[in-house]
């Protein structure tokens, strides 16, 4: 397989008023696809300072394990399905802050795709001067169910990658195939259209692997993930946080059914989807090895499912956490994340030596659309406005207590920006939380970001489903720099030792051409300075 020429083009300097050393020029999207993917259907890597974990799928099943060559050292693939379509590679004992040459080979030595590069992160004690993160949410959805076409989503992501981020964080809803929610299943995985599309119905009392459930999952989830990412992220470590739809349902509560906490089948579906398509979280010395989803049969697993860390030297430590896997319905003592996780989060905020400690929960801080599975008690009144005067059915007051504890811990960080980045609400947004309940955060307000959705279908915006767009909770005092904007887009976050610069990108499905994606520029830029 011959290496194809890979041409890079430069645009005009970005945001000339900002430090040139921080903002590199972007390459045009049109030239970013010259890499030969060979036999690969998709490839998604993650990294820390000493390891790679790479998930791949092939156009045709392989009967013998492929090998990943890392600077000439072979790492044998491990099959992650039962038919040889899906494989993963775990490369360990790597040098920190180094770019490695990678290639995939069949057992006979023949290349399976073009070689590529991937870098480890800087060592935890090192002092890098810059980190750029790509942040987005809600990239899932089957094109046949009227979600944004996979080619358009891929184009949005390629435009984001043209700014050369060091890593990407996909915050929730990588799959939409709701199976039981009375509100959403009828237009999703529980519909007759969905059953016909994948040729069957999931059997909840059967295992996933080795049964019809495995093939149905691949038919439902594959088109939502593989063509959206393809092999574009081969050199960009990715971090996937799971939210409600990744457990194959919507977070809803009715007299007939409460969909969360996830039952055993939902947990298995989320686990298998992750095992096949996107990387789990690699170990971190400052994260307990026994958090939920990181231990099996009483022993620490080598990767984690729900709670992870993106550590980039002493510059940034991002705490990645799903609120779905451990949520409880215990009234005043209910939580979204169990006590061991809450303790870990608060400890890192208090003790981390990183210049920036960022919270990345799957459930947003600050805004609400009045739905059940949120931090907040706001509910939509008969007059079409959010209110606290009507009790939200099945909502748990303990969730809000935990929310206030976490926000207080963020605001209390000394010399750090209390920054929270999340998704879920299908919007781009930026605001500062000055008060939460009785907690005064005004000395160091919590900055909350809605990172922007990639794949939302026209009927999927909160204002369509909930009859109201995302708004600040009445539990809070909040200043909005960007009121939640229901458009497709993404956010780039640049971290230097003394500041964070956020750039927000949007694309209007109704008023812009698909070709306009290739030249998107920020519609809003915000600079956050570290407190003295």
- CATH architectural group: 4-Layer Sandwich
CATH topology: Purple Acid Phosphatase, chain A, domain 2
Overall number of strands: 28
Fraction in beta strands: 25-35%
The value of Rg in angstroms is 22 Å
- Tally of structural domains: 1
Average pLDDT value?
93
Overall SS class: alpha+beta
Shape: globular
Low-confidence residue ranges: 1-25, 28-32
- The number of distinct helices, counting runs of at least 4 residues, comes to 7
Distance between the termini: 55 Å
Under CATH, the homologous superfamily reads Alkaline phosphatase D (PhoD)
Helix content: 10-25%
How can the largest sheet be summarized?
8 strands, mixed
The first-level CATH class name: Alpha Beta
